[in-house]
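Subject: design request, 524 residues
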């Protein structure tokens, strides 16, 4: 193993000393009851783990879980804690299950699919709502995107209006919810393209097939259903969240954790993670990207810490608002936090590619079918040619050989998915935006030194070089699921793949020279 590549065991995973006095944020969560939606998702996992491990004084966490793929809510709840993510939490808080209660629900259903009894319990007990549930698929069917990203938010806001002990409500949006028609995105509310109620009325009047056909005309300049519905959802906060202690978190592209609870943890292949995973096993060799544009990525644990810290500030802001005796005071304005890296620690797509190739070649996958070679091109015609030469032709050759040997051909179908995936994310890899994050920076300054240590999200202090060691290793461990003891064999395989690659390149170059020389002799 290369000297500068550390294993996960080399990192300090010790959390705070419980004998210390609680920090301000820990004190805020002490004795509180939290409702967390989206707990089974990547970000929801991190929020749940962090709350139990670091804010151990929390009274109870209600997590909304639906049935999925033939599994009951109870089965999904039990499986939730089998992930390596929760190992440190279980070690430090062995009685964690005593504080977590699963609530049967579904964000696709009216009133979040929660029955009346549980609805009343939540209304009476909940102090803090963290709404993390969302469908993050860029190409999600519009009906589902509307139901999950907009209507579910409306429903939980209505429920929150009847929570007499509500201290803070945090809605997780996205930095790209307002990326259309502007290059600069401030921490303010923007006018949505349409109200949630009007869009719901439209989709409810049409069948799924017709919605699919007309979705491009509905989206207009919006890149996908995700960005548009998240923009509309922010507008619903001003309508249904009036006079609630509410705030909005807008993270950019969320990637693997940097430090906690384990470095490099990731459990999905959305966005940049999918690019690195596909490139690491040699499938993806070209991408439509402008290498000079900003890859605005943010580690998952930084987003989690910002969410938990923001609830503390939202509560303080709300408390000051309610205690103000000014009769002419303005209405409460929810605070928005842009959680981005481009403002304080910008990284280009060219640098993103460089770091991933650097560490990907040092800790290669045992399953790789080709060395890591990713060509970035912003020209759509050049990109199409590269796809044909580097993806389609090799796929047809390999699949043809597979058929001859009685195996199932897979590469052609695989590349169809990869090309669809890259088409979806190309909007974000060909453009850059200026995200102002004054509220986020101000929040960091308000934290005590202890809270800045316990809830770290100051991106200016992150070393991208150090981060990508963990990032690449995390994808190998948690996405490709290859233990580190396979690394020596993977290194040997990688050397052979490079030898094969350069041999083939040499043969092709030699053939090209012979053809050119033959043509030269023919016409001389």
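Subject: RE: design request

Done. Sequence follows.
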């Amino acid at each position: 193993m290369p000297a500068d590549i550390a294993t996960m065991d080399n990192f300090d995973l010790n959390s705070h000393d419980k004998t210390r006095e609680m920090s301000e944020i820990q004190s805020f969560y002490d004795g509180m009851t939290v409702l967390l939606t989206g707990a089974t998702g990547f970000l929801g996992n991190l929020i749940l783990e962090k709350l139990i491990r670091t804010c151990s004084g929390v009274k109870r966490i209600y997590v909304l879980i639906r049935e999925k793929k033939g599994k009951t809510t109870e089965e999904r709840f039990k499986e939730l804690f089998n992930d390596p993510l929760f190992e440190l939490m279980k070690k430090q808080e062995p009685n964690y299950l005593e504080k977590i209660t699963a609530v049967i629900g579904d964000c696709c259903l009216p009133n979040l699919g929660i029955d009346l009894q549980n609805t009343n319990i939540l209304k009476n007990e909940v102090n803090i709502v963290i709404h993390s549930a969302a469908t993050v698929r860029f190409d999600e069917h519009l009906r589902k995107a509307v139901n999950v990203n907009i209507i579910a938010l409306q429903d939980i806001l209505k429920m929150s209006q009847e929570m007499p002990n509500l201290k803070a409500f945090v809605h997780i949006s996205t930095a790209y919810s307002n990326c259309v028609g502007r290059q600069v995105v401030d921490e303010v509310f923007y006018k949505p393209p349409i109200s949630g109620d009007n869009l719901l009325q439209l989709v409810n009047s049409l069948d799924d097939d017709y919605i699919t056909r007309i979705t491009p005309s509905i989206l207009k300049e919006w890149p996908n259903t995700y960005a548009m519905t998240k923009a509309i959802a922010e507008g619903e906060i001003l309508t249904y969240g009036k006079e609630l202690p509410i705030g909005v978190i807008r993270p950019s592209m969320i990637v693997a954790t940097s430090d906690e609870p384990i470095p490099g943890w990731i459990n999905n292949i959305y966005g940049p993670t999918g690019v690195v995973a596909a490139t690491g096993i040699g499938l993806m060799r070209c991408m439509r990207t402008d290498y000079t544009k900003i890859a605005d990525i943010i580690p998952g644990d930084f987003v989690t810490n910002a969410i938990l810290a923001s609830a503390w500030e939202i509560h303080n802001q709300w408390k000051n608002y309610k205690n103000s005796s000014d009769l002419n005071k303005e209405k409460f304005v929810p605070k928005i936090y842009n959680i981005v890296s481009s403002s304080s620690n910008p990284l280009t797509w060219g640098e993103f590619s460089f770091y991933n190739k650097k560490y990907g070649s040092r800790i290669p996958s045992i399953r790789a079918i080709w060395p890591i070679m990713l060509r970035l091109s912003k020209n759509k015609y050049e990109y199409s040619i590269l796809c044909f030469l580097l993806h389609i032709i090799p796929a047809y050759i390999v699949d043809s050989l597979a058929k001859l040997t009685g195996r199932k051909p897979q590469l052609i179908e695989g590349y169809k998915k990869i090309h669809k995936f890259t088409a979806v994310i190309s909007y974000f890899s060909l453009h850059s935006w200026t995200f102002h994050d004054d509220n986020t920076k101000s929040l960091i300054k308000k934290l005590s030194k202890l809270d800045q240590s316990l809830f770290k999200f100051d991106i200016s202090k992150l070393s991208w070089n150090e981060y990508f060691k963990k990032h690449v290793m995390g994808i190998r461990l948690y996405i490709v699921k290859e233990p580190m003891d396979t690394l020596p064999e993977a290194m040997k395989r990688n050397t052979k793949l490079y030898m094969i690659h350069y041999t083939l390149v040499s043969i092709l170059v030699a053939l090209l020279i012979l053809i050119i020389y033959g043509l030269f002799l023919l016409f001389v």
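Residues 24-268+295-344+433-460 form a domain with the Rossmann fold fold (CATH 3.40.50.720).
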